């Protein structure tokens, strides 16, 4: 419960930090530059000048839908960064000899209590990691059942449960990945609606407002889809990291413990 509450607090502050950072960049840099460019283009059109309109990243990013998409992107990156950091810390335990077992030394059921002590002496946070939990569960199961097959099943159950837990904790990231294109489509609907509301001006020859509104429609969708692609890439990389951790933990338990178990 302690770690779950700390994760929730981290997510709340990560969201607040993302909102503040992105909004500050928009207010200080993106919107002032975009407004200046739009005013320049409208002035040229009003003067009847012939020019090639350049696409500017400031104009593409200026609207509220794009800002919301960037906020969600940073929030998702922060959540995934925390989970990746935890996976890296857990993986480091795979390089440690948590069980002091010499090659060829058999482990009997009565030896499990002594072997459990070094693992139980780990710091509380490390003891909650997957590798120590799997080893402790296996040793306790072997001491109580004196059955190697039961130990193997207990390791598999712990790893499968951890895999399901890690997958369920990505639900928020998946929601964000779904929400970003949806926000982009909201911008599309808003832009097209504004363009239709100014259709009478376009009939009269003033297409400036319609052009700006259609820009809102297409730019919001463009930014949202690009951000969604980026987040999906990092999501799959995080899932791959977590799946490898679970599989390597099961292999670690098999090689460092299971093959030494003997029934007298």
Automatic annotation (TrEMBL):
Membrane topology: Multi-pass membrane protein
Cytoplasm listed as a keyword: no
Protein name: MotA/TolQ/ExbB proton channel family protein
Keyword Thylakoid: no
Phylogenetic lineage: Bacteria, Pseudomonadati, Pseudomonadota, Gammaproteobacteria, Cellvibrionales
Predominant location category: membrane
PANTHER family in the cross-refs: MOTA_TOLQ_EXBB PROTON CHANNEL DOMAIN-CONTAINING PROTEIN (PTHR30625:SF11), PROTEIN TOLQ (PTHR30625)
InterPro entries from the UniProt entry: ExbB/TolQ_transport, MotA_ExbB_proton_chnl
Record keywords, A-Z: Cell membrane, Membrane, Protein transport, Transmembrane, Transmembrane helix, Transport
Pfam families: MotA_ExbB
Record's subcellular location: Cell membrane; Membrane
Chain segments annotated as transmembrane: 12-30, 175-192, 212-234
Highest taxon listed in the record's lineage: Bacteria
Family indicated by similarity: Belongs to the exbB/tolQ family.
MotA/TolQ/ExbB proton channel domain: residues covered: 135-248
